[in-house]
């Protein structure tokens, strides 16, 4: 269509690009385009595309053909091609508002929001009464978390066209994000009254109804959404969460599996793991159990979540697998494990070595299971015996790979396994052989290195740096990287870390000493966090009905991690929030160096690490939108002083995320510390090993033994943190309420599994009612066994 023809079309009431080929003229190009449009209207896309391209061979700037090809490319999910075609169409006629809108939709689908907004604004300039352009701009602005501007555009669109379904749907989504669930539901119902097959609308109405506690209605709309569009993967997750709240883990897991079969999204994987880790027992069917084990193996190797989160489930599945006979015998034998060649048969060694899930677990996270620990303690003794007999093999490649994974496990748990005097003597002999070989340059059997690395870190050997330059098999290379190269890199980075404050408080000095000796924790992979989101959107998802003060929103996000340890949580935070710049501080340079190394490995650049004492942070001259203090305040001399300091650094409208120990949940820890004090054990490796074994030997009904249920019990530095810490405060909810009030902080809610349990017990209670939470904890004393994890906000106007 040329300009003259378009002007004529407009006079007849059609906008440019409106595709009314019957009135477009009789030129050959327009006749071919008319035929193309008829094929398009009939759903015959191949013929339509062929004819449009034929038009372009005669008229390369034919607007309508370029525009229609762009629309067809969008429908075929060829977004980059669509963008190119729309741009060529606009080069032919930039005053076509429909083309600007369609280009904006393609750009938005590619995440290019600023460009999309620009074209939508151009469409509005060209045609101010273009309701679809206003609504589309509202969608983009909402995605950019510019809520007030988005609302204005939705309202303008609906003022122009009150029946515009896209406007009602977009406004409903905005209301949903703001926690106005009744208003959102009303918008969705209006859409569904006109378009009953709108699957996404059914899905979002389900979310709103679930947040209102109307679970049966929500389930109805989730089922309807899946019946219309089974490929809507978010519905499997949202519907599954509803089932989890009702305690129907099996059906939730089935939904999660169906969602993964449709598309393996990061969110879908996370939900599958959430369901799987809540299974009360492994599947009865052997094939189903094997299938679940395969998925958990993938999850460990591919980093679907923190590996430590899967250690418990992995152990249950391993104990049900091929190695179950060996594991049962090892568990019955206890910690006294003779290191003899005849301890395991060849078939048993093959069963253990060939367990892919066991190997993945050993390489990823400390094992958190007593029976498996016994098995691995025996395996280590077998390995040591073979190494000292100068074997260079271990029973095949599977066995060598297994023993290599065992060595990496021992480094991850910091050699927490029981160690007999006989073994200690044999380890000394092996170290002497290695030191002599390193000094002389003699060949070193691979099994020597694997066995030694299972008892002591290889970097402790004289001349260990020479190992990094050798040619080794994969199992040995992995061990050398873990135990020689990475510690060397941490030593290099340690010298480069800045100190922001002095550390002079007596308790702070003692805590620093502990974490310099035992950085906490060792970890291999962070949890994936998905596409970065704004802090308000993130919290709205966690706390749908929380009283968030939206006046605190601003561009970017300055984050302080107060007490970052070895950096696992800090690096997740740095990736979780859009526009985040993170300062992570800790007392321990050893911990900070570990964190810095992991940040470098992961390519995370928006984080800086520095040594500092929380109590001295007032002098750094900075303020923050988000402050996270996870498991730190309870290790200060005065937690109240620490919270006051952090609150002073928090900007009005900013958020605080705090984790602290519950006195109600940690009665067993107090009992264990009394048990330790009676025996005079100190915070050193040999005492911690002995302490653990004596606790495991207690009767099952002894309250002290329940500390073996903590994941921290299964690694040296974590066990020291759990049972031997130099300073620990424990809290009750009334104390938390007072501390928040004293600092002018508004409680938002407790995160994690306790929130689900609370909601199931009190479906109509406010999630931010601390008095109600206190009653709940008294009813369920183990609710916060993994710490209180709370969110609070500093009011915008104080």
Describe the 3D structure.
The chain is mostly helical. The chain has 37 helices and 7 strands. The chain has a 7-stranded mixed sheet, with helices on both faces.
Layout of helices and strands, plus pairs?
Layout: H1 3-11, H2 28-41, H3 45-58, H4 63-75, H5 79-92, H6 97-109, H7 113-126, H8 131-143, H9 147-160, H10 165-177, H11 181-194, H12 199-211, H13 215-228, H14 233-245, H15 249-262, H16 266-276, H17 286-302, H18 311-319, H19 324-333, H20 346-353, H21 356-364, H22 370-388, H23 397-412, H24 421-440, H25 446-453, H26 474-494, H27 506-517, H28 535-542, E1 557-562, H29 568-576, E2 580-586, H30 589-602, E3 607-611, E4 624-630, H31 639-649, E5 650-660, H32 667-679, H33 685-696, H34 716-723, H35 733-742, E6 746-750, H36 753-761, H37 770-779, E7 788-793
Features:
798 residues, mainly alpha, seven-stranded mixed sheet, 37 helices, 6% strand, globular, disordered N terminus
Tell me the radius of gyration. 31 Å
Low-confidence stretches: 1-17, 20-24
Fraction of helical residues: 55-70%
What distance separates the N and C termini?
62 Å
Summarize the structure.
The protein is 58% helix and 6% strand. The chain is mainly alpha-helical.
